[in-house]
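Human:
I keep going back and forth on a fold encoding question. Comparing notes only helps if you start from a blank page. Show me how you would write down a chain together with its backbone fold. Write it directly below this note and I will take it from there.

Assistant:
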Amino acid sequence: MSKISDYKLLFCLFVVAIVWGTTYLGIRVAVETMPPWYITSSRQGLAALIVLVFLLYKKELAWIGWANFKIQFIASILMIVVANGFTTIAEQSIPSGLTSILSALTPLVVFLGSAAVGLQKPNIKGFLGVIIGFLGVVFIFRDGLGDILDPNYKVGVLFLSMAILAWSIGTIFTKGNTHKSSNIELNLFYQFSIAAVVQYVLALLFSPNVDVYSWSMRSILATLYLSVFGSVIAFFCYHYALKRVTATQVSILNYINTIIAVFLGWLLLDEVIKLDFLIATILIIFGVFITNYKKNRS
């Protein structure tokens, strides 16, 4: 891999870590006044429109064929409709600490799933890195572990658990099919379009009498941010990275997301950062380093 490609990969991994670390906050703001399925359908619809303009400008808009369409349809349903949609629903009712703890299970599920289907060899280094990073997340939010058993959160926990499973399966599925198509923008256009249609139908089914005038500007701007940064930019970077590193290496960025989410809580919501957070940050970064470290070969 060339140095330029290395820099592109590092940049994409950095974007995924930072941007998706901010989406938890964005979703929480969006659901203040907007129904979840309207948030997600608007988010993906706008994302599809942005990518469409880009494709038209580059004169690359084309039919991808039924074989590739099936791949993008499955990825869209798993990673956008179910994973993104259910996470949005879950954040209506469960606290951010519990959300972070459960979401941190994603790299572990992806690691085990990738090993099970033969996408990567099950090795101690990868497993150790995932576990250390997960322990870092738990260390930050250990006071919220009891919330998992709180009956008031059982619906939110159920939706988030299904979202994590769908995202993990979608990541493994996408990694296994990255070699079948090279145009990431075109694939994303179809994924966003499919998700927007499906989620809009769900919005009409579950919120038929919605009052758009009750939506606050905060929620609308949050949805706009989620669309441009959380969908278009971050998804492009995510798929670019999946073509070049293992699914586990990309998914472990969820741990960095936790650091970003807590930092934003301190910066924007005046939440206190204690010594526990600094210790946990070291554990998380160490876990990411172990999973991604490779010895230079002379």
About this structure: The mean pLDDT is 83. The chain is about 75% helix and 0% strand. The first helix runs from residue 3 to 30.
